[in-house]
């Protein structure tokens, strides 16, 4: 892990997997934009912060996914960090029960086993109409970029550096990603396009890159997600239940599914693509003997 200077007082912790941006309020106090994984990244992030003599004044989260909020409570306990998140994302990660409700399909025991580091007490709730948030005297602008998660936000530091969270993924990640995740694809596409209109010099992508122009990246991201949707569409060559589609997708994308947890995660990702295909009227759901079966509405678009 290392610290990368972006611009002015805006820096990033490079965890290897992720960029975690931070803004230096002064020589000692920093505001983190997301906090990384609790399991696997905490030790390294904390050591880097300690070695530089930093104190985490606060954390502004882009969204409540486990690799973005995993050290919230750690820094809240250690440094009394103030935590800010959108009202909806804060609710989603506020308790074991809310996480279970959010993810569906997981037992409470499985939530405790896999998502414990997600659970966060949020101090400042950001509402959809809030255009900025003050933390330690610094003003951060908030750009709502929902889609990847229900109330995802992008955050602009006082240096005019945009942290886009998971609204975009880098070219490197596109190369390795079998099935990228978005809670609602069509909404995510609108947020990606919204980012392309911002007139800023520096954009930080969580997984993982720093760009001065994101126009091509936005178009390539949308094309990448649409191409993945097309491959999901293609496997539904006859009326199929969700489980049958999942089996076909696992084969088509060559995904290793060795645990119940992983199967549930992949299923959730795949369902977003199925929802999208229904939304754009390429797939249709119908009830058949008590089972929901999905079928293609047209063949022409895939040829
Ligand atoms: Zn995410």
TrEMBL record:
<protein>
    <submittedName>
        <fullName>MBL fold metallo-hydrolase</fullName>
    </submittedName>
</protein>
<dbReference type="InterPro" id="IPR001279">
    <property type="entry name" value="Metallo-B-lactamas"/>
</dbReference>
<feature type="domain" description="Metallo-beta-lactamase">
    <location>
        <begin position="33"/>
        <end position="207"/>
    </location>
</feature>
<dbReference type="InterPro" id="IPR051453">
    <property type="entry name" value="MBL_Glyoxalase_II"/>
</dbReference>
<dbReference type="InterPro" id="IPR036866">
    <property type="entry name" value="RibonucZ/Hydroxyglut_hydro"/>
</dbReference>
<keyword id="KW-0479">Metal-binding</keyword>
<keyword id="KW-0378">Hydrolase</keyword>
<dbReference type="Pfam" id="PF00753">
    <property type="entry name" value="Lactamase_B"/>
</dbReference>
<keyword id="KW-0862">Zinc</keyword>
């Amino acid at each position: 892990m290392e610290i990368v200077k972006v611009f002015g007082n805006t820096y990033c912790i490079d965890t290897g997997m992720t960029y975690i941006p931070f803004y230096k309020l002064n020589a000692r106090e920093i505001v983190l934009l997301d906090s990384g994984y609790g399991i696997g990244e905490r030790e390294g992030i904390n050591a880097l912060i300690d070695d530089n003599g930093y104190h985490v004044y606060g954390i502004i989260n882009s969204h409540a996914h486990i690799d973005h909020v995993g050290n919230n409570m750690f820094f809240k306990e250690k440094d009394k960090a103030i935590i800010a998140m959108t009202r909806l994302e804060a609710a989603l990660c506020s308790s074991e029960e809310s996480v279970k409700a959010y993810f569906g399909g997981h037992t409470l025991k499985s939530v405790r086993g896999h998502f414990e580091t997600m659970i966060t007490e949020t101090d400042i709730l950001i509402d959809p109409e809030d255009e900025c948030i003050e933390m330690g005297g610094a003003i951060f602008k908030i750009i709502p970029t929902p889609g990847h998660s229900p109330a995802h936000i992008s955050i602009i530091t006082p240096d005019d550096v945009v942290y886009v969270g998971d609204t975009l993924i880098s070219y490197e990640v596109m190369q390795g990603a079998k099935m990228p995740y978005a809670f609602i694809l069509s909404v995510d596409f609108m947020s990606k396009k919204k980012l392309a209109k911002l007139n800023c010099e520096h954009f930080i992508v969580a997984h993982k890159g720093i760009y001065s122009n994101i126009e091509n990246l936005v178009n390539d991201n949308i094309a990448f997600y649409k191409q993945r949707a097309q491959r999901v569409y293609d496997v539904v060559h006859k009326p199929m239940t969700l489980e049958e589609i999942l089996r076909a997708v696992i084969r088509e994308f060559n995904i290793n599914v060795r645990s119940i947890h992983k199967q549930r995660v992949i299923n959730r990702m795949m369902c977003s693509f199925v929802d999208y295909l229904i939304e754009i009227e390429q797939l249709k759901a119908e009830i058949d003997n008590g089972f929901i079966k999905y079928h293609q509405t047209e063949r022409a678009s895939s040829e």
